[in-house]
Amino acid sequence: MALLSGGARRVRDEESTRDRTVLLNQFLLSGVTLVVTVVALLLGEVLRPASHIIGVAVIYLGAVAAVLIPWTRLPHWAAGILPIIDIVAIGFIRESAPTAGLGLLWAFPAMWIASVYGFIGVIASTAATTAMLIVLTALDPAARLTASLFLLPILIAALGVLVAIYTRRSHVQRELLEKQSAYLKRSVDRARRQEAVVTEVLDAVDFGVTRITRSGDLVLTNEAHARLQGSSTWSGEDIPAFAADGTTRLDADEAPLARARRGETFENELVWYGMPGEGRRALIVTARRLTDLDGSPAGAIVISRDVTNEEQALRAREDLVASVSHELRTPLTSIVGYLELALDAPELSPQTRRDLEVAERNAGRLLELVADILVVSASSRQGVRLLVHPERVDLSQILAAAVESIGPRAAERHITIDMSEVRPVSASVDPHRIRQVVDNLLSNAVKYNHDGGVVRAGLSSDDTDAWITVADEGPGISVDEQPHLFERFFRSDSVRNSTTHGSGLGLAISRDIVHAHNGEIFVHTRPGAGAAFTVRLPITFQEETR
Questions:
Q1: How many angstroms separate the CA atoms of 108 and 29, rounded?
Q2: CA angle at residue 186 from 183 to 191, to 5 degrees?
Q3: How confident is the model over 289-344, as pLDDT tens digits?
Q4: What is the pLDDT of residue 412?
């Protein structure tokens, strides 16, 4: 249908163009004829007035016909009759004044025929003009052969060829422009359809999407964005925003969209919108930079996802765990204390002492588990960072104290702890927290090592950082499990299927403590080759800023 309508439109355009060119050519010829007639009369060059009047009259009658006849309703060839009549009329005009050069008027109908009918029109107009010259020359006894008689048809033919070529080129250019216009229209329609589909998809999803240009303007947002933030504005600045802990108020320039407009990028940042109480929402917000095809910056895109229910469930779970842990710690502490007192009694039988020692070890394990859970609750994913109180200490002393504490457990399994690579290093750290990290690493190295193995502890430093290493000769950790090693409550399949006990919290707590010191913790391991944990701690503690 589109092709048919385009062809019909093209035919209508050609007919309209032919109608206009008929009028234009005839009126132009009439105007030039009038001027030439006036000049010839003033100069007295009109020798046969009757012939001149006939030619002029025919040309003006042709002008009237150009106006009155509906050329668009006639066949295509019908419009060519009028310029042929003009050629005959110009022959009468030239015959009335042979020396006035009025034969040049033949150029007008010849060029029009060439523009409408192409090279066929050039041949026809040239033939008609030559025929008129031959007839006029034959009828005039005084006429003689001159170069102008041959030059005039050649000149008219040359003009016709130029006009035909120019017209053909114009038609080709017009067709090309029409094709380009049609292609551009199809491209625009396709882009609009794609934009409509994208808009429908964005409005259908349940996460917010906002597009930011390179200059910081907000050019695209979906319905979910405003709905999630509870605001009709794009920036959400009319409702309060809070940090991940839910209580720290964020300034306007600290809001996620404001940061993204400044060019910052961030991943999965938790932000609370609304005052504490009913109706507030927790959003996970991510901002990523976009680039053009040439690699230049093209702005950013901000994605927000509602995690209110998940966050509230996690908080409820952690509150419950913390509450239960607090309730368990007090009786467990009493149990451990009374067991220690009972073990101090000299009159215990060997069997009773062994039973009490088993009870004491298990009570101690429960107490350590409760302590770990309380630490996790204090540094939960709600955004509350572990508080550290740094002071200048010798890390080698912390490491030595931890080795001394784990010594009896290692000796039970004939495990040797090698401290030959420990060097004195002074750093600004929280000694209690770092002792927790070292205790966890050494405990794991002894727990998962084989009987009679070796645990290697090392301590060194460079200009800016202190490096603590703890390596064992245990079974190692598979590649698939390594990314989850520092997750809370994670225990590998091989450990869960063994008799080795653990909560899966030690490495997660160690990671949080190291991060609170602006440091990092790494692991290098492979199955069957043991595991080596490395802790990097800045020698000079600096409070981290956003």
A1: 7
A2: 125
A3: 888 877 788 888 888 888 888 877 777 766 666 666 666 767 777 887 878 878 88
A4: 87
CA 63 to CA 67: how far, in whole Å?
Answer: 7
Nearest residue to 532 via CA among 520, 522, 518: 522
**CA distances, 319 to each of 251, 296, 323, 543 (Å):** 29, 48, 6, 28
Amino acid at 400: A
pLDDT of residue 497: 47
Query: CA dist 5 to 9, 107, 186, 316, Å?
Result: 6, 37, 15, 68
Say whether pLDDT at 471 is over 70.
Answer: yes
User: What does the pLDDT read at residue 384?
Assistant: 44
Report strand pairing: 281-291 vs 266-273. Answer: antiparallel
The three-class DSSP label of residue 180 is: helix
- Give, in order, the Cα–Cα distances in Å from 76 to each of 18, 79, 106, 113: 9, 6, 22, 12
Q: Kindly report the number of other CB atoms within 10 A of residue 414's CB atom.
A: 9
Classify residue 239 by burial, with Cβ atoms within 10 Å: 0-12, 13-18, 19+.
Answer: middle
Distance of alpha carbon 504 from alpha carbon 484, whole angstroms: 11
pLDDT digits (tens, 9 = 90+) for 490-533: 656 555 444 455 556 778 888 888 988 999 998 888 887 888 99
Structural tokens at position 268: 């999965």
Structure tokens, 20:
């206009």
**How is 381-403 classified by DSSP, letter by letter?**
TTS-PPP---EEEEHHHHHHHHH
Which residues, listed in sequence order, are joined to residue 426 by a DSSP beta bridge?
394
What confidence tens digit (pLDDT) does each residue in 111-139 have? 888 888 888 888 888 888 888 878 877 77
Strand order of the β-sheet with 531-538 is 416-422, 454-461, 465-471, 531-538, 520-525
Reference 523, options 513, 505, 510; nearest CA is: 510
